[in-house]
Amino acid sequence: MIRLPAFLAGCIALSLAATAPGGAADANAGAALVQANGCAGCHGATLTGGIGPSLVGIEGRRSAVRIAAAIAQPVAPMPKFPFSTAQIANIVAYLSALDSSSRPVARLRFSTSLAALLSVRFPGPLPARVTAVPVMQMGQLPMRAAAVTLHPTAGGRLWQGTIQFPMSGPWAIEIAYDGRHLTVPVNVPGSR
Questions:
Q1: Is the pTM of this model over 0.90?
Q2: For site-directed labelling of 17, which of 83, 146, 164, 186 has its Cα 20 to 30 A away?
Q3: What is the DSSP track for 7-43?
């Protein structure tokens, strides 16, 4: 259990509330930070656990302040990252939305080392169309893999499609639906 001095907990709470105009943290920016910093290396390719614990559903186990504190002042073996307060708030927003009942939830199940079934569950209004594009940052330019159109099952709540990755490494899957988007970081494993 993480115990914070009252002052530090208060500072983290205030920074979480005032990170961007209007006080809203950016979950997509948080997803990019999670992907770029290799969090999937310890927390699993879909952040459901590995060497480190599962981050999916963490908002049900910890408050936003406790999640931020664990990132700002990690306990070994988790490394300390040089994240700013705003970046931590963005990561907390992303992690808190991984299994939210009001946001879509994406899951990957690898069938081979470079192919995975992408499933996206929509709890709210049903989308008309869902597409997904894997993107890997290669220096200044992103490398995009083939776009995939997902197909509805389960009465339109669950959309699925197979993603093909050209190579292993850190990817982000950009999911677009009805003018909205969701970014899911994933660490694609090497050949098995």
A1: no
A2: 186
A3: HHHHHHHHHHHSSSGGG---HHHHHHHHHHTTTHHHH
Q: Are 117 and 109 in contact (CB under 8 A)?
A: yes
List, in sequence order, every beta strand (DSSP E) within 79-179: 105-112, 115-121, 130-138, 141-144, 148-149, 151-153, 158-164, 169-177
SS3 of 177, please?
A: strand
User: Are residues 137 and 190 in contact, defined by beta-carbon separation less than 8 angstroms?
Assistant: no
Domain that holds residue 158: 105-188
Shared domain for 183 and 147, answered yes or no, is yes
Total domains, the chain:
2
* Domain end call among 67, 97, 127: 97
DSSP code, position 128 = S
Q: Residue 192 in 3-state DSSP?
A: coil
Residues 127, 77 share a domain: no
Q: pLDDT, tens digit, for every residue of 46-97?
A: 788 888 888 888 877 888 899 999 999 999 999 999 999 999 999 998 888 7
Is 1 a domain residue?
no
Nearest-angstrom CA–CA distance, 17 and 175: 27
